[in-house]
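Hey, can you fold this one?
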Amino acid sequence: MSNKAVKKSGNKAQNKPLSKHAIKFLRGIAHDTKPVVTIADKGLTENILIELDICLNQHELVKIKMRTDRETRAAFSEAILKQTGAQKVQSIGQTLTIFRANPKKPVFELPK
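Sure. Predicted structure:
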């Protein structure tokens, strides 16, 4: 894996931990959304990280479907959060929901 996707996103240092109210708000929005990215047989590739970076810049809140076993999902989740600079909102079964604020074009105004 390369760090191309990470280099494009320069706002990692600005991420503050999400408050409980913000997480609850984002979980409510994510409930009706469908997964945007699916990780399956080939695992976590550079192309997936680049696509995630694009989706996070546009949507801020992204659902990811991971079709792997539990240990691999946990490893992929940690790698995704580290590589993209996003924060975990929720993880249920094979679905991971992440959030990364876009300072230039915010989509959501989070509660305090």
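The chain has four helices and four strands. Let me know if you want another pass with a different chain boundary.
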